[in-house]
Design goal:
Length: about 70
């Protein structure tokens, strides 16, 4: 490998390192989960969905049958 090729690769590595350091120094992105946590609070439809999910996990399909009749 020639000196020119090595210098070119080294310059690319230095640029990449500088970009990574800049990303680390900037403010971290907010956690998407924390942003939406609580957004369904006091939402009756969400409470109903949780009830259906619990019924499915427990093998109680009677709630699902009731849903189909509506």
């Amino acid at each position: 490998m020639t000196n020119a090729a090595l210098e070119k690769r080294l310059a690319a590595i230095e640029t990449a390192i500088a970009q990574l350091q800049q990303q680390l120094a900037s403010d971290p992105q907010p956690n998407w989960l924390q942003q939406i946590a609580g957004s369904f609070k006091d939402e009756p439809a969400f409470d109903e969905i949780l009830t259906y999910g619990q019924a499915i996990r427990q093998g109680d399909e009677s709630l699902l049958n009731d849903l189909g009749e509506q």
